[in-house]
Amino acid sequence: QVQLVESGGGLVQAGGSLRLSCAASRSLFSFNSLGWFRQAPGKQRELVAAITTGGYINYADSVKGQVTISRDNAKNTVYLQMHSLKPEDTAVYYCNAHSGRYDEYEYWGQGTQVTVSS
Description:
Layout: E1 4-7, E2 10-13, E3 18-24, E4 33-39, E5 46-52, E6 57-59, E7 67-72, E8 77-82, E9 91-99, E10 105-108, E11 112-117
Parallel strand pairs: 2-11
Antiparallel strand pairs: 1-3, 3-8, 4-5, 4-9, 5-6, 7-8, 9-10, 9-11
C-alpha cells in the first residue's frame, strides 16, 4: 500500500514561514504527479500546488508567489515552502499523489494542521 506522510505543520504567527514535508513510501518517479491540498474548517478542499514527474508545476492563483513546491527524489519527499503566512492560510494540509495510465490511482496523506495566528 502506498503511504504518504506529512509533517512540518504547527502554529505560527502571521508573516511567518513553514516548510511542510510529504514522505512517500516509494519512488516519486512512480507517480504521475504529486501535490498539496488544504481544507479549512467548513470549506471545500482546494489545490495549493502540484508538480508532475516531468517537473511541471502549477500553483493556485490564491497562493502564487507565496508558496513553492519542490521535490527531493533521493529522499522520496515533496516539500511545500510557505512564506508570509496569513490567518486565512489556516487549514489542514494534505499531500496527494496520482499514478496509473489514466491517473486512476489516487493517494492521500493523513494531513498536517497549519494554524496562523494574528
